Description:
Bound molecules: ligand 6PV
Helix content: 25-40%
Strand order of the largest sheet: 1-2-3-5-4
Strand content: 15-25%
Structural class: alpha+beta
Oligomer: single chain
Number of helices: 12
Order of helices and strands: HEEEHHEEHHEEEHEHHHHHH
Shape: globular
Radius of gyration: 21 Å
Number of strands: 9
Amino acid sequence: SDYEEILKYYELHETIGTGGFAKVKLGRHLLTGEKVAIKIMDKAALGDDLPRVKTEIDAMKNLSHQHVCRLYHVIETSKKIFMVLEYCPGGELFDYIVSKDCLPEEEARVFFRQIVSAIAYVHSQGYAHRDLKPENLLIDEERNLKLIDFGLCAKPKGGLDYRLNTCCGSPAYAAPELIQGKAYIGSEVRRPVFVCLFFRFTLGPLPSPPHRAFEGSAAQIHSLRFPPEFCWVALLSSSPKLSMATDQRSAVLFLQLGHLDEDCVRELAVFHNQSRESISALISEWNYDQMSATYLLLQSKKARGKRIQLRIPS
Length: 314
Ligand SMILES: COc1cccc(Nc2ncc(-c3ccc(C(=O)NCC(=O)Nc4ccccc4)cc3)c(OCC3CCNCC3)n2)c1
């Protein structure tokens, strides 16, 4: 069956989300005990959207950043594609904001910085996300944000400055220039909704269509009853450019990828009864198979201060 291969390495548990053509189940990696999110796509249902999934998988293989959800393992069978991804126990940012009614400014500021850092990084790798919304921002165990995407990301052929025309993403969160059908540059589209969602405001009846509220002068924005003390106008200014300082830490991460974590390599070498050199060579191929998935999950476990002991499957 199509589940034979995935069940060799993971337990499958309840469904935690369904997107357009994907179902996401909670899983557990047998060797490390780590929870994972397993995105299951049916190749027939994907139809001519299949290339977009390949684009997403290639994108994920090139994206390694502390605020972008990590891809661990890809398994393809005759009918299905399984993507084993980082599980975020905190769920969606959207639910978190609603549950707290409003975020304290300091917390909103930290989240906002993490989003800008993730987006700047994704852009620096030549990708435009194109469906940025609170449902696609998840909270990890340290209450940091992780950017995800349900396969809408685009790597414009003409590079990032190529003028994208397809109006995509979710209308409710779209920036004015998108709704007005203007050609836009993927990396410059405004994100007014984040300013709203993050700053204390009571969810009054949004003027319809919602994006109208962000046009023009600050006066209209008061109609959203923004507390005046927030200096948000700069973010909603008419020039869409957000200066995105890429986060230096992601560069460090890339360097780390060059040097594998000795403890994790040793644990795998012992488990597989192989030399550390042969294990390091296998991991460094980054085939997104069981070897690299186990290495990444051990590294994540170690980063959280947990023991990295591989279990002999019972
Ligand atoms: C505790 O209760 C809860 C409750 C809810 C969730 C969780 N946790 C939890 N952890 C992990 C996931 C997940 C991670 C990655 C991807 C993905 O598709 N990556 C691909 C990707 O990131 N591309 C990409 C990124 C950046 C640039 C370019 C491409 C898909 C799903 C999840 O999903 C559940 C859905 C539910 C519907 N809304 C969206 C999330 N849920 C936990």
